[in-house]
Amino acid sequence: MTTTPARPRAAGRPGATSHAAIEQAAFGLFAERGFAGTTLDDIAAAVGVGRRTLFRYYRSKNDIPWGQFDRTLDDFRRILGSTAPDLPLWEAVHHGVVRFNEFPGDARPGHRERMELILGTPELQAHSALRYAEWRAVIAEHVADRLAVSPTDLLPTTVGHVSLALALAAYDAWMRDPSRSLAGLVDEAMRGLRAHLAC
Question: Is domain 19-65 in CATH 3.50.50.60, yes or no?
Answer without folding.
Answer: no
